Each structure stands twice: as C-alpha cells, then as structure tokens.
Amino acid sequence: MIARRALLAAPLLAAASPALAARRVPPAARAYDRFYLPWWKARFYAKQAELRRGPVELLWLGDSITQDWERHGPEAWQDFAPIWERFYGGRHAVNLGFIGDCTSHLLWRVTHGELDFIRPKAAVVLIGANNFGATHWGAADTVQGIDAILASLRARQPQMRVLLLGVLPSIRSPWISEQTALTNRALAARDWSGTPVTYMDVGGLFMRDGRVDAADFLDPMLRPPDPPLHPTAQSQARMAAVIEPTIARMLGDTPRVG
What we know:
Oligomer: single chain
Largest sheet: 5 strands, parallel
Distance between the termini: 39 Å
Helix content: 25-40%
Strand order of the largest sheet: 2-1-3-4-5
Low-confidence stretches: 1-17
Strand content: 5-15%
Radius of gyration: 17 Å
C-alpha cells in the first residue's frame, strides 16, 4: 500500500510547472515516501551519504530495473555489476534505483535530498513500470508523474542533461502492455527540442517478431518464477550500449565500448 504520509507536493509542483498545477494532480504526480519500509529508509539515507561523498557527474534514477545494476551473479543473467563498471566506472555515477518505486516515490526522493549538494552533468530516468502494478495508475497519470519528476529535476539542476527512457515492455497483462505503449507514445509525441531532455524508447531491444521476448528477462528464471519484467544482465548490457553515445555526449567524454 502506498504510504499516506505524503508531503504537500502541490505547491512545489505549482512553482516548478504552472501548466502541471493547472491540471488535476493525480497520486502518480504527488510526492510520497516509503519510510514505512525499513530497507527503503535505510537505502535512502545510505544513498544520501554516497551522494555527499561525491563528486557526482551521472545519476541513474529509477526503480528495481535501475537498482539491478548493483546485482552480482553468481549466474551470468544476474551479474549486472561488471556491466555497470564497464559503462559507468570512473564517471562518478550513482545508482538511485529503488525496488518497487512508482513515479510518486521517485518524485519524493528528488525533492527531498537526492539533488542537494551535487551538480551532475547528466541523469538517466527510467520510471513508470510499477505505476501499472498494484497502484493501477494508467498512462495519463503516469505521464503526469514523469512530467512532475522532470520539472523538479529542471528546477533543482538546470544545467543537468536528462536522458528519459520509455517504460520498458513486460509480459504481465494486456492492460499493462496497453498502458506501457500509451505512455511511451505520449512521450514520443512531445517536442523535446529546446529542453534539456532527450527521450529514447529502447523497448525494441526486447521484442522479437513484434512480440516481447520472455528470454530477455530474468524473472522466469527465479524460483518461484515471476512474469517477465526485469531485463537480464545481458539485455541490460545491450540497453547500455544503445544509450551510450547519448550519455557520452551529455557528459562530454568518449563513448565506452559495449
């Protein structure tokens, strides 16, 4: 259950984006913490300490798919950490992925310290998949949540370039697949020129013959198995290789070889 201890996010959003405040603000675009979960609270404060040790030039902001970058095998399909090191080692990158986070939780984190006392050059944002789970927030609300996150990033770090990734495909339910497609379609239709945001839909990496390929996901290999949602380490490496030229351009350095 989403924590009901939400701080008053509406004034913040009004200051960051008057157009957003003029619309109905759904829960997906309001800031909620998850301090009722001890592990989430501990991770939040641990990441605060990591950020303050600095320097910080690159952020990955998201949910469990982002947190998976910290996984170490032993199986090859869940050995993500070497891939993170290959692409982001030496780049002063910080992993700000939290298992189970929706747009509302990421919004709370970025408005409560994750962007304080640092000046990163770039951030990757990958969020929204959990909106379609237990909370059952649809595409329209999810897009508003992503808008709120982007507005907060811009307000706090105007120099920071943002790579916004589309919600990755999964095999959970027809409704979730529809909402994923609608969200990505709405984001792709935007004119991002003149903004610090680059939008990229990498969902095609997980498709074969027009269908989502379950073999690209680690969940079916878990015991007990889960529906395909989280990319394997190999699939995430392909994703990192595809977005690498954009990240290198944002950081002003040389692209890493996948």
